[in-house]
From TrEMBL:
InterPro entries: ATP-dep_Glu-Cys_Ligase-2, CP_ATPgrasp_2, DUF403
A Pfam family: Alpha-E
Domain DUF403: 531-827
Protein name: DUF403 domain-containing protein
Chain segments carrying region Disordered: 1-24
Domain Circularly permuted ATP-grasp type: 105-482
Superkingdom of origin organism: Bacteria
Bilayer-spanning residue ranges: none
Length: 843
């Protein structure tokens, strides 16, 4: 059926139902203006002008939903992306952007996908074979099938890796990707090979989760093939390459400011890999270890997501701050497996594309199943002459550089004489530095544009994983779609959206026909894996910043509502002055004078105030961004919601409006605390979150007590202290005669049963320290344990009547010393954090 053809409204039995007529009318309206570009293949409209069967079924199912329901589903998907922190970063930008997922998938029938998968697997095998030869005996160069000059000139040829053979079969590649589009004849062809550190698998996984959640009826009815088996096969392939039966696998990331860090965190969480940065790793005695709070733990497999020459500043790029000194030494010793090997980016260069057809025939005895772009390496005189003969119709790019995104080319026949002269000079003096390719016109796929569908250029990235049984191809992929009809998508950024890729099976899978594998022999564990020192550091400060934000919110509530029913503006002047002075000392307000509403705006949402609640929540979010693989979606959603409340411009709101905002922020902070308390595994990183919160809470309470529980404290002072310590209800239930100095001091400082008291915090710290791993084997307590035991005993032996502000100030100093001892012992900058513990170093 043509997209522009009138829709039939009759069935064999006569008139269609009203619902059927409505559905058909929706389809017709959506497709009314859909016109593929002349001569450009399209995914929805076939060469015969009819809608392809897959899209016909998809549109039928989508049209079953009312238009407002479709809009609501798409809006819910966008909210889910924002609230769950699914984001990316454009290179050079400091801020993250919400992931731009399109609302329509790319549909591919199962039979067509089988051809794509076979072609991608063939190219993956070809790349593996070529890499093994180039970093080995170089027979292909000797046979003249690969130009030696191109290999030697490539910056991706890493000589320290020559001759290095990995354990588990010596594999160079564990993950391969190919960027595809349809050619003018409608056949799929490869625009670029990705062997360096292919990105997109995590985003493909997230795309599927979001779209299947938004359109569950459509997803289920079309029998979309699942992605989970591919990821399991990839994990099994990495594990099989290691020497140990239960290897420890880590994902090497460039850090939270990397373009695709969120994707890497998704993959680490989904696959159960340790997410590590270069500073988390060290090489000792030729072996690779992860710095953890329990000492050094051996890493058997390292899946890198940084460029190959950046993995080791000693043997490769000395400017790198992302790698691990000595890592090449560990690879040369065969002490760990790297996926993909450094130097694998060598075969991304355009020069190899000109050799691939002949290499496929020579190595496999068959042609390429997925052809690439016609390519000429200008270092070959015959090919250079062919390029010069077609100078006005070809494009040029550096021979060693991979295509960026879909491709990066520049027209050879430039109108700029100076640029044209420069290119001719390169062709004359250094022709091997360039390759020429035919210009590319990307094929199109449907995109949702307001009320209907429009054709847009796209690039499909397909992934293949090395497994013990061969190459496994993901039944789906990572698709980038331009928002403009004549713009080629190069990289994720402005004007480009992602699309989920649905590979359709012939029929829905029968769960009974393919039961989940039984793992009776799998060992039982009750630990959550290792905790890198860097992650513990971020968890610790996440807790501290959240507690600081809560303290600032409580101070603001007290500023606006007072110690009880009477606002501070009408209560004791000294109490109000001390409260405003504390807000100023903590960097939340610029001055102690002025309307309470204006001061509250600074304290809650001040952008220039280093001590505002917003500033502390932003800091907590930065720490959380480095912990995405360890935090639940619910926790990230609550943190985002808290920041949204505090980040909203306040304008000239009234005291009541600011009080409402503060109380909402307090509720969201309590939700975050509850999620950490109830959802985080006690054997994982939760102790460090709780240690951070309890140290910060105890420090704040000591400061509050020093200000509002002095000998001359008024009833307003004491009431305010109880409110800041969230202890008014507990105090009222215990004492019926009103506030008094000694009982209030006891409640907020000494009472071990009050969860907000200093005594309670210190006891919990002692319990945490007792449960954390120790490096010393002599039975003596470590510094943080010794300090907290001393403070616990002193608090237990103190009477409320003897509690002066000086005592509270001394305890505050002791708590700061405990925090410093924790940092010194467990975190990357500490003197003990990098020390190998021989008893566990090989575990």
């Amino acid at each position: 059926m043509s997209a522009a053809a009138p829709l039939a409204v009759r069935e064999a039995g006569g008139e269609t139902s009203e619902a059927e007529a409505t559905r058909r009318e929706r389809r017709a309206r959506w497709c009314a203006d859909y016109r593929p570009r002349p001569g450009v293949p399209d995914e929805m409209i076939g060469p015969d002008g009819a809608i392809r069967p897959a899209w016909d079924r998809f549109l039928d199912r989508l049209a079953d939903l009312a238009e407002d329901e479709v809009s609501a589903r798409f809006a819910a998907a966008a909210r889910h992306i924002h609230n769950s922190g699914m984001a990316y970063r454009v290179y050079g930008e400091a801020a993250e952007r919400d992931w731009p997922l399109g609302v329509l998938p790319l549909l591919i029938e199962g039979a067509e996908w089988a051809e794509i998968a076979a072609g991608v697997a063939q190219r993956a095998s070809l790349m593996e074979t070529v890499l093994a030869d180039l970093y080995g005996e170089a027979h292909l160069v000797a046979a003249g099938l690969i130009p030696a000059a191109a290999v030697a000139a490539s910056p991706e040829f890493l000589r320290p890796l020559h001759g290095v053979r990995q354990p588990g079969g010596g594999r160079q590649l564990h993950l391969y990707a190919a960027d595809l589009s349809r050619g003018p004849d409608g056949r799929w062809r490869v625009l670029a090979d990705r062997t360096q550190a292919p990105s997109g698998t995590g985003y493909a996984l997230e795309n599927r989760m979001v779209l299947a959640r938004a359109l569950p009826e459509v997803h289920g009815a079309l029998a979309v093939r699942p992605l989970a088996p591919f990821f399991q096969a990839f994990r099994d392939g990495l594990a099989a390459a290691a020497e140990r039966a239960e290897p420890r696998i880590a994902l090497l990331t460039s850090g939270p400011y990397g373009d695709t860090y969120v994707e890497q965190a998704v993959l680490a969480r989904y696959l159960g890999f340790a997410l590590v940065e270069g500073d988390d790793l060290t090489v000792q005695d030729g072996r690779l270890f992860i710095r953890t709070v329990a000492g050094l733990k051996r890493a058997d497999v390292l899946w890198r997501r940084v460029d190959g020459d950046f993995v080791d500043p000693l043997s490769l790029n000395p400017a790198s701050r992302l790698g691990v000194p000595g890592l090449v030494e560990a690879l040369q010793a065969g002490a760990c497996v790297m996926g993909n090997m450094p130097g694998a980016g060598l075969v991304e260069g355009g020069w190899l594309a000109s050799c691939l057809p002949a290499l496929a025939e020579h190595l496999f005895g068959e042609p390429l199943r997925l052809p690439g772009l016609p390519t000429w390496w200008c270092g070959d005189p015959a090919q250079r002459d062919a390029v010069l003969a077609r100078a006005d119709t070809l494009t040029l790019r550096p021979a060693s550089a991979p295509a960026q995104g879909a491709f990066t080319t520049r027209a050879f026949g430039l109108r700029d004489p100076e640029e044209t002269g420069r290119l001719f000079a390169i062709l004359r003096d250094r022709p091997g530095d360039l390759v020429a390719q035919e210009p590319v016109q990307l094929s199109t796929a449907p995109a949702w544009d307001g009320p209907g569908l429009v054709p847009r250029p796209f690039v499909l990235r397909v992934f293949a994983a090395a497994t013990p049984g061969g190459w496994a191809v993901m039944p789906g992929g990572f698709c980038r779609v331009s928002e403009q009809p004549d713009v080629q998508p190069v990289a994720m950024g402005t004007g480009v959206r992602a699309a989920d890729v649905w590979v359709l099976a012939d029929a829905p899978a029968d769960p009974a026909a393919a039961p989940m594998p039984r793992l009776e022999q799998a060992p039982v564990r009750r630990v959550s894996g290792l905790l890198p020192s860097r992650a513990a550091d971020n968890l610790f400060w996440l807790g501290r910043y959240l507690e600081r934000a809560e303290a600032m919110v409580r101070l603001t509530i007290c500023l606006l509502s007072g110690a009880g029913a009477v606002p501070l503006s009408e209560a004791d002047e000294g109490t109000a002055r001390r409260l405003r002075g504390l807000l100023h000392a903590w960097g939340a307000v610029p001055t102690v004078v002025g309307p309470a509403a204006a001061l509250a705006a600074h304290a809650l949402s001040g952008r220039e105030a280093w001590g505002s609640a917003r500033t502390h929540v932003l800091a907590a979010r930065r720490n959380a961004a480095s912990l995405r693989e360890r935090l639940s979606v619910e926790m990230w959603r609550s943190l985002s919601a808290l920041l949204d409340v505090l980040d909203r411009p306040g304008g000239t709101g009234s005291e009541a409006q600011w009080l409402d905002r503060a109380e909402r922020a307090l509720g969201l902070g309590a939700a975050l605390s509850g999620l950490a308390q109830e959802n985080m595994n006690r054997a994982g990183g939760w102790p460090f979150v709780d240690i951070g919160r309890r140290i910060e809470r105890a420090i704040n309470t000591c400061r509050f007590a020093g200000l509002f529980a002095a000998e001359a404290a008024t009833a307003d002072d004491l009431g305010l202290l109880l409110q800041l310590a969230d202890s008014r209800i507990s105090y009222g239930a215990r004492y019926l005669l009103g506030v008094a100095l000694s009982p209030v001091r006891d409640m907020v400082l000494l009472d071990p049963y009050n969860p907000r008291s200093v005594a309670f915090q210190v006891e919990r710290l002692a319990e945490h320290f007792a449960g954390l791993p120790a490096l010393r084997q002599d039975g003596l307590p470590e510094p943080q344990t010794r300090l907290v035991r001393s403070l616990t005993g002193e608090i237990a032996g103190t009477e409320a009547a003897a509690l002066t502000p000086d005592v509270a100030a001394a305890w505050e100093e002791r708590l700061w010393a405990i925090a410093e001892a924790v940092e010194t012992r467990y975190f990357p900058g500490g003197s003990e954090a990098a020390r190998p513990e021989r008893l566990v170093a090989l575990a």
